[in-house]
Write a structure and sequence with these properties.
Elements (H helix, E strand, L loop, with lengths): L24 E6 L13 H20 L3 E6 L13 E11 L3 E11 L6 E13 L17 H17 L2
Antiparallel strand pairs: 1-3, 2-5, 3-4, 4-5
The structure holds coenzyme A.
The site of coenzyme A has 13 residues, from strand 2 and strand 5.
Length: 165
């Protein structure tokens, strides 16, 4: 069995800014019978749990701190995933404000036999970085690099403004 080598990296706490790719998180799951309704469709709550976990890992990697989920925007289940499907979840930070961070999460299902892959859900989660006493604390800024990252960064401000109204 290959030896697993984990390197413990020193915390950077780069408050000046980090790129979205530094904390991008990919998670893979398999849909088992216990995750489904009687028609073999993946429970929405189970998918939400996986999306919450992936986005928490992303937010905590960016902040280098514990982060708590504070909200998520409208969630739409576009298509069902079925027993045996492979679920891939990608979580990527769009923007950090003061203590809050917005994470864009997408989930795809892949049928093993047909290899068909399709989007089943996407949502924006907001997390708040916490200090050791669970008090909100400043998170590092986000430095968008690609055109898509820059667009998400710009639109995040509109979503935050609408959320707070
Ligand atoms: C997260 C928590 C500590 C924030 O406390 P708070 O008193 O609301 O803190 P603040 O009012 O200072 O808000 C902190 C940030 O959250 C943002 N925020 C608060 N409510 C929000 C909402 N509904 N949607 C989006 N952002 C929100 C604020 O705008 C602020 O962002 P900024 O600092 O970047 O400007 C508190 O709400 C909490 O403990 N909630 C429970 C979290 C939880 O149990 N999650 C599930 C387990 S992880």
């Amino acid at each position: 069995m290959p030896e697993l080598n984990f390197r413990i990296l020193p915390a950077t706490k780069k408050l000046t800014g980090k790129t979205p790719s530094e904390s991008e998180t990919i998670m893979t799951e398999v849909v088992y019978p216990n995750d489904t309704n009687p028609m073999g469709m993946l429970h929405g709550g189970k998918l939400m749990q996986w999306m919450d976990t992936a986005s928490a890992v992303c937010a905590q990697t960016h902040a280098e701190r514990i982060a708590a989920t504070v909200s998520l925007n409208k969630v739409i289940f576009k298509r069902p995933a079925k027993i045996g499907d492979i679920i891939t979840i990608r979580a990527k930070i769009t923007r950090a404000f003061n203590t809050s961070m917005e994470i864009f999460v997408q989930a795809w299902a892949r049928r093993v036999l047909s290899r068909e892959k399709y989007l089943i859900n996407e949502a924006y989660f907001t997390f708040v970085a916490l200090d050791d006493n669970a008090v909100p604390v400043a998170a590092p800024k986000v430095k968008p690099v690609t055109a898509e990252e820059k667009l998400h960064y710009k639109q995040a401000l509109e979503r935050k403004t609408n959320n707070n109204n």
